[in-house]
Amino acid sequence: MGRTKPDSVELDPRPETSHVARSDQDTFGHILRRNTAYGTVSDHGTMFVGFAASKEPLHRMLKSMAGVDGGPRDELTRFATPLTGAYYWAPAASDLSARATPEDD
Question: pTM for this one?
C-alpha cells in the first residue's frame, strides 16, 4: 500500500500503484480523512469519510485510485470491495442566509 508494515513509514520512492501515491493530498487538494473500523470477527470492514471544501478533490482522488485518469490502478482496490458510496453537500450558513427569501423569516 506504499508503507512499511511494522511502523507504517511511507516508502521512498513510492510505488506508482501504491495507495499513498494514488491519493496524495499534495496532488488533489486537502481532505480531512477519517476511517472507522466496524463489524464482528466474521463480518467487518472500514468506513471512510472525507471532508473537503468542494467535492472536486474527492472526485479526482477516486478517479486516480480507479486508474481512470490515465494512471495505474491503486493496489488497495484489489483487496478492498466497496459496498456503497455517496457524496453529500452541506452548505455554509452564510450561503443559506444569502438564499433565504422574506417568506422564510
Answer: 0.74
